[in-house]
Design goal:
By secondary structure, this protein is of the alpha+beta class. Among the domains are: 82 residues, no CATH class; 84 residues, Immunoglobulin-like, CATH 2.60.40. It is 22% helix and 33% strand.
């Protein structure tokens, strides 16, 4: 009868090991030249920008190829022909011609935490709205700050009613409008870190109503300050700027991240798929 508990424990350990082998520990922040990857349990394949890598992956660089890998708290640069093994916290050069280095970075940049497992391979593109559909454009997700908060939407004509509701279900503000945007007045004091929902109702001449809602929150001051301090300086490497764009994404700052991706896509066309289509 002792066989069954042992079997269960063995299966649990196997499942945990498989999960660990599939969990990304690093992400490709930049690459040039020819590079391939052999991930555990996967076939040899060409390495791609923003590809996430589990522990145990082996990268093979040809000739003068160069790869920048992003770990949670640092960037490692791989350069030179040879094989490299991806570890949980670092990379090991397996051949004599393979070199691993850590480019210098300001303390504020090193303080940013990147989560490789939360790096999506592409942006979700928004579907365009037709003239009868009500679509809330902004704000959505996390917002940089409360000043100048602009609410915009698209949809059919009619009487436009906007309501702003806090996470306790209390009505914070409302407005009757004849246009499809509303600027939050300076006297409206929204709290950082709290969730808000805004709802728009459009009533046409026949009394038919359409309604849509979206949520957002204001970035806490400490997190905003850390991102400001870590903002890449002029002349920063592509890897550092991609890491910062990912940090913006993972903070929920989609609008700021999109501006960063637009600039990066000019230098790395492969990043164009991360740029959202306008609604």
């Amino acid at each position: 009868m002792r066989i069954l508990p042992s079997l269960i424990i063995g299966l649990a350990l196997l499942v945990a090991e498989l999960a660990r082998a599939q969990t990304p520990v690093a992400v490709v922040l930049d690459l040039s030249g020819q590079a391939r990857v052999q991930a555990p349990g996967a076939q040899d394949a060409k390495l791609a920008l923003l590809q996430t890598l589990p522990e145990g992956s082996v990268l093979v660089l040809a000739g003068p190829a160069r790869v920048a890998l992003g770990y949670p708290r640092e960037v490692l640069e791989l350069q030179g022909a040879g094989r490299y093994r991806v570890g949980a916290q670092s990379v090991t050069a397996l051949d004599a011609g393979a070199r691993v280095s850590t480019p210098p970075a300001p303390a504020a940049v090193r303080a940013l935490t990147l989560v490789p497992g939360r790096v999506a391979q592409g942006a979700v593109r928004m579907r365009g709205a037709d003239s009868t559909e009500l679509v809330l454009v902004q704000p959505r997700g996390t917002q940089w700050e409360r000043n100048g908060l602009l609410f915009q939407w698209q949809g059919p004509p009619g009487r436009q009613t906007l309501e702003l509701i806090d996470d306790q279900g209390e009505l914070v503000a409302s407005a009757e409008l004849d246009r499809q945007e509303w600027s939050a007045p300076p006297v409206l004091r929204l709290e950082e870190g709290r969730d808000y929902v805004w709802r728009v109702t459009v009533s046409d001449a026949k009394g038919v109503q359409r309604e849509a809602r979206a949520g957002f929150r204001l970035l806490p001051a400490a997190q905003r300050s850390a991102l400001v301090d870590a903002r890449p300086a002029a002349g920063a490497s592509v890897a550092e700027r991609i890491r910062y764009a990912l940090a913006l994404e993972q903070a929920g700052l989609q609008e700021e991240a999109q501006r960063a991706w637009l600039l990066l896509a000019r230098e790395r066309p492969a990043l164009a798929e991360r740029v959202l289509a306008a609604p």
